[in-house]
Amino acid sequence: MELLSGADMIARFLKDEGVERIYGYPGGAALHIYDALFRQDSVQHILVRHEQAATHAADGYARASGKPGVVLVTSGPGATNAVTGIATAYMDSIPMVVLCGQVASHLIGEDAFQETDIVGVTRPVVKHSFSIRHPSQIPEVLKKAFYLAATGRPGPVVVDIPKDMTAPTERYEYVYPKKVKIRSYNPVTRGHSGQIKKAVDMMLKARRPVFYTGGGIVTGRASEALTDLVRRLGFPITTTLMGIGGYPQGDRQSLGWLGMHGSFEANMAMHHADLIVAIGARFDDRVTNNTSKFCPTAKIVHVDIDPSSISKTVRADVPIVGAAGSVIDEMISLIQGREASNAESLGEWWKSIEGWRSEREGKLYEPSKPGEALKPQEVIEAVYRATRGEAFVTTDVGQHQMFAAQYYKFAKPNRFITSGGLGTMGFGFPAAMGVKLSYPQDDVVCFTGEGSFQMMMQELSTCKQFDVGVKIVNLNNQSLGMVRQWQDLNYKSRHAHSYMESLPDFTKLIEAYGFTAIKVKTHDELAPALERAFADTNELVFLDIYVDPFEHVYPMQVPLGSMRDMLLSKTERT
Amino acid sequence: MRHIISILLENEPGALSRVVGLFSQRNFNIETLNVAPTEDPSLSRLTVTTVGDDRVIEQITKHLNKLIDVVKLVDLTEGNHIERELMLVKVKALGAARDEVKRTADIFRAQVVDVTPSVYTVQITGDAGKLDAFVQAMAPIGILEVARTGVSGIARGDKLLTL
Ligand SMILES: Cc1ncc(C[n+]2csc(CCOP(=O)(O)OP(=O)(O)O)c2C)c(N)n1
Ligand SMILES: [Mg+2]
């Protein structure tokens, strides 16, 4: 029997759970835990420069690896600084465990120094949370936290740890709990066979079917099964922003992603479909546009592991609660050996889709000519080529995010890492750090904007300390571009606080941390800069790329319209 | 339509706030809320009455079920059920009104459970409609204070809400 203090139990548990790295920032209430971390060397602690960055870094790691990211922060301001990152993970169903120091039990409720009811503050943005009431509960509670974070529909779990629970003088028996049971939590995996059969019957008869798949394919590790199913049926497929890479984007059957800034052909196909097979997607308002005009002729099959996502915004005709992978496998086995009666109508359907495709081909944007300022879109395309499409890509939020999603084509899941649900500026750079630390052999590119980057740029210091070689591509349009775009479209170009009139010289800033930075102002400077930037995978390089500040992201769905109501450029609309 | 949802909830600190928080967070409405431990000390039983169309009620039950602390729930209004609420009412009882209060209480099978020279405290149980009717009947006489427990309920017959 082994007797350990609460703090040592936490360090030991993390090791036994197979956690290699955690992200955090120390403070009074967490100091016993930090001392325990100091006295071991199985778990690496990455000291960030702001707790929000710890959550984004853990989140980036979780999105790339599928395993829970782990964060350690102190009470009060440490914990409240982490809230944005917790909410970001929650909205995108990312597994994360956040350990928060708390003031000692006898002080709780007394407005003690650095006391915040963090369980209360985070309640609407966690999958679940725990407060430790006795040190002996630590192993079991932590096991439950990891189990909840990573299973079913994943999400962040907060564990609140009063300082006296980790006191070095109090020791209790430690046994690593290999398994835990939570009586009220039994996530469904297999879907209802009758419903799946019904769905397959509809799929084999559909005349204008579309797959619409989301992050559930990525978190559910179902992309191979999905690819198999989609290829067998020969249907077109569109993914959500979160589902990017769930099906290879270069493939002929892929229509790219859908929604507000989705591809023309994806949105058109959705609008005209007679059957939508939604898997691991949640009919979010950035996808559906006006739900009352959404896909007027379509029947809807909706597969999701979370029953509350089904028929939440759009009524499903065939709801199927289950894990994406298991349901898809069952669909495949039902399809095998059966004749589809819809080959002819599918051919017609593809003709329409190819028509939409060619309608917009080559008209998406006007590339720059030698000597001119660069277009943001072509920068993404150039980075795509420079990295052979194989990099991990993180983004911040704004126009650059949409361009990155549109012009970098992902062949694999877990490679496009973006804050889709919450849209958190500041996410990209720390998320890239979290990916790079776990995937040192890979190129990790953060597409950011000068607005977003300034929200988390203190992490340059973390990169210096831990030698994190991410590539930062700053699409510098000298403005909060996405805000400006909305102001152009909806407020007669009154640019209220959407431009950055006092930008720093980013190259000098980066150099102050001892890193390489390259300023790119014209078309001709891009290629050599990229060559330099990607010469060494493990070197942090910052590319400050000046791009056309007047560019807009298109297509753009018209507010309150249907899926097919889109602005296609500054002068064209559907 | 009005629904009565009964929930078996882990008897854990913070569990109740998750349920209540869910209603405000998702803009669902709570008409009444009633909660107390059950014969199993690890479980509380919580009953809410809420109003919404089928789509909203479906979302409410799904989101409640998703809470880790919710062990089991039932929408009692989907079947035959018994609905009860207890109310304590203080009524002005002076002069002729004193008899009037007693008579009305008798008609409703309510009991006077406390008496002062000027006030009767009346206890009544029943479904929400009966309690509302009693309040209406007493109002002209002079209601001083009302305390209602909120609705509690249970299915009729062999149907059980247990683990
Ligand atoms: C934390 C946060 N605050 C505000 C916003 C609203 N917002 C969305 S995009 C955007 C502009 C982002 O500017 P920049 O990072 O320069 O990207 P650009 O659109 O110019 O490419 C803003 C302010 C947000 N998404 N996140
Ligand atoms: Mg910008």
Automatic annotation (TrEMBL), chain A:
Transmembrane regions listed in the UniProt entry: none
Cofactor(s) the protein requires to work: thiamine diphosphate; Mg(2+)
Reactions mediated catalytically: 2 pyruvate + H(+) = (2S)-2-acetolactate + CO2
Record EC number: 2.2.1.6
Cofactor mode of binding and number, as noted: Binds 1 thiamine pyrophosphate per subunit.
GO MF entries: acetolactate synthase activity; flavin adenine dinucleotide binding; magnesium ion binding; thiamine pyrophosphate binding
EC supergroup of this enzyme: transferase
Keywords, comma-separated and alphabetical: Amino-acid biosynthesis, Branched-chain amino acid biosynthesis, FAD, Flavoprotein, Magnesium, Metal-binding, Thiamine pyrophosphate, Transferase
A Pfam family reported for this protein in Swiss-Prot or TrEMBL: TPP_enzyme_M
Record's GO cellular component terms: acetolactate synthase complex
Known pathway: Amino-acid biosynthesis; L-valine biosynthesis; L-valine from pyruvate: step 1/4; Amino-acid biosynthesis; L-isoleucine biosynthesis; L-isoleucine from 2-oxobutanoate: step 1/4
Keyword Metal-binding (UniProt): yes
InterPro entries given in the database record: Acetolactate_synth_lsu, AHAS_TPP, DHS-like_NAD/FAD-binding_dom, THDP-binding, Thiamin_PyroP_enz_cen_dom, Thiamin_PyroP_enz_TPP-bd_dom, TPP_enz, TPP_enzyme_TPP-bd
PANTHER family reported in the protein's UniProt record: ACETOLACTATE SYNTHASE CATALYTIC SUBUNIT, MITOCHONDRIAL, THIAMINE PYROPHOSPHATE ENZYMES
Family statement: Belongs to the TPP enzyme family.
Name of the protein: Acetolactate synthase
Organism: Salinicola socius
Source lineage: Bacteria, Pseudomonadati, Pseudomonadota, Gammaproteobacteria, Oceanospirillales
Automatic annotation (TrEMBL), chain B:
Domain of life: Bacteria
Alphabetized SUPFAM superfamilies for the sequence: ACT-like
GO CC field: cytosol
Single GO MF annotation: acetolactate synthase regulator activity
EC number assigned by the record: 2.2.1.6
Pathway: Amino-acid biosynthesis; L-valine biosynthesis; L-valine from pyruvate: step 1/4; Amino-acid biosynthesis; L-isoleucine biosynthesis; L-isoleucine from 2-oxobutanoate: step 1/4
Catalytic activity line of the entry: 2 pyruvate + H(+) = (2S)-2-acetolactate + CO2
Gene Ontology annotations of biological process type: isoleucine biosynthetic process; L-valine biosynthetic process
Keywords for the protein's UniProt record, in alphabetical order: Amino-acid biosynthesis, Branched-chain amino acid biosynthesis, Transferase
Any matching Pfam family: ALS_ss_C
Top enzyme category: transferase
InterPro entries: Acetalactate_synth_ssu, Acetolactate_synth/TF_NikR_C, Acetolactate_synth_ssu_C, ACT-like_dom_sf, ACT_dom, AHAS_ACT, AHAS_small-like_ACT
Record-annotated ACT domain positions: 4-78
PANTHER family given in the database record: ACETOLACTATE SYNTHASE SMALL SUBUNIT (PTHR30239), ACETOLACTATE SYNTHASE SMALL SUBUNIT 1, CHLOROPLASTIC (PTHR30239:SF0)
Family from the record: Belongs to the acetolactate synthase small subunit family.
Quaternary structure and interacting proteins, as annotated: Dimer of large and small chains.
Reported function: Catalyzes the conversion of 2 pyruvate molecules into acetolactate in the first common step of the biosynthetic pathway of the branched-amino acids such as leucine, isoleucine, and valine.
The protein's name: Acetolactate synthase small subunit
